[in-house]
Amino acid sequence: QVRLVEFGGGLVQAGGSLKLSCAASGRTISSYTMGWFRRAPGKEREFVAFISGSGDTTYYGDSVKGRFTASRDNAKNTVYLLMNSLKPEDTAVYFCAAAYRTYAPASTDYNSWGQGTQVTVSS
Prior knowledge:
Order of helices and strands: EEEEEEEEEEE
Largest sheet: 7 strands, mixed
Low-confidence stretches: none
Radius of gyration: 13 Å
């Protein structure tokens, strides 16, 4: 099983940027689609982005499209989420997850999850 740990959360002002990292261990993630999800207080978990194993394909949720960028470095067994133009509504706990399938926009597609990292955007 892949073990995942997220890093890089914190407090940022609206309009600012933050880059999250997700370090994997236990298995090489190059064959996994890696996803990012978030859960805001009182809301359901929301799909943010996924990136294919090779990194050639990315897919984003409508609320973050054009502002967030997923990337990965398979040599470091790490995936990233660069978040630009942050808004207060982006405040949430962000999770990375691993899926052994090509197209994975749903949380049920994923087998392994990190514990999450808090992102807070102040207005």
